[in-house]
Amino acid sequence: MKVRVLGSAAGGGFPQWNCRCPVCVLAWNGDPRVRPRTQSSIAVSADGAHWFLFNASPDLKQQIAANPPLHPRGQGRHSPIAGVVVTNADVDHVGGLLSLRERQPLSLYGTERVLATLADNAIFGVLDPQVVERHTLVLEQTAPLCLPGGASSGLSVETFAVPGKPALWLEGGTGSREDTVGLLVRDGAGALLAYIPACAQVTEAVRERVRGAKLLLFDGTLWRDDEMIASGVGSKTGARMGHVSIGGPAGSLAGWAGISIPRKLFIHINNTNPVLIEGSEERQAVIEAGWDIAEDGQEFLL
Ligand code: MLT
Ligand code: MN
Ligand code: ZN
């Protein structure tokens, strides 16, 4: 199984177009301690020829250009992208669906809740259901990922609820366990990826879920809960946004302590997060705890 990081930043990317927080300023200045990052998405393939996007970010076109395995091949219309799996309805995770609208057959996977949100919003009708098959992911169940038309891709996903909340733009309604999910991705050989780009707390249930994974990609949005406030660029805490912070006694480094997964990286990193800065105290703490910070273009072979 191949896993490619298309975008390792959270919503807004890094640097964010309208942000001069201390970390974005480094990126705008071209400081070598930071690398720009696009918004939250990975691509996974069992055979290296057919790829599933896990979340489709508003930066998708740039991400396809930067990742040759996703370029069209042959003549006429073609794409190695066989489908998209979405973990929630956040703008950074569904915005890129609108860039996949050129009548390319695709398989689209999400929970009933998230697919209903897309169905209720007429703009996503540009992905004509005749061409883009919708497939429902059921909590606590494993589903094969099928190529458009129904052939097996060699990948399956197990869907599980994680502590979280509905997308920002859907707030006001009632919450559901299907609002934001984690996924275990397997291929025929048993390679196991745990992908959890949004999670409000590292509970014992979440730890138990990912047991046996070879690679864990986990929500690294913020270093500390009040980081956006402290950086002077927002009023919301991480908890308010459904993201556990990395640092601190209630943070994810502490929450994941002792977990035996060979490769663990933070992904979906907000532009205010000091772990983006090579050599920072916070980056050092992450590395000392056995974690890494995901980068755009990274590929893992499981
Ligand atoms: C989040 O991860 O909390 C969202 O992507 C925020 C947003 O939609 O801007
Ligand atoms: Mn997000
Ligand atoms: Zn910023």
Explain what you see.
By secondary structure, this protein is an alpha/beta fold. It has a single domain, classed as Metallo-beta-lactamase, Chain A (4-Layer Sandwich), CATH 3.60.15.10. Helices cover 18% and strands 25% of the residues. The chain has nine helices and 14 strands. The chain is globular and about 50 Å long. It starts with a strand and ends with a strand. D-malate (MLT) is lined by residues 10-11, 90-92, 168, 198, 241.
CATH topology: Metallo-beta-lactamase, Chain A
Number of domains: 1
Major sheet details: 7 strands, mixed
Strand content: 15-25%
* CATH architectural type: 4-Layer Sandwich
Q: Specify the structural class.
A: alpha/beta
Q: Count of DSSP helices?
A: 9
Bound molecules: D-malate, manganese (II) ion, zinc ion
Unreliable spans? none
N-to-C series of helices and strands: EHEEHEHEHEEEEEHEHHHEHEE
Side by side, the strands of the main sheet go 6-5-4-3-2-1-14
Q: What is the general shape? A: globular
The CATH homologous superfamily name equals Ribonuclease Z/Hydroxyacylglutathione hydrolase-like
CATH class membership: Alpha Beta
Q: Residue share in helices? A: 10-25%
- Overall mean confidence score, pLDDT: 97
Number of strands: 14
Q: How far is the first residue's CA from the last residue's CA? A: 5 Å
Please state the CA-atom Rg, rounded to the nearest Å.
18 Å
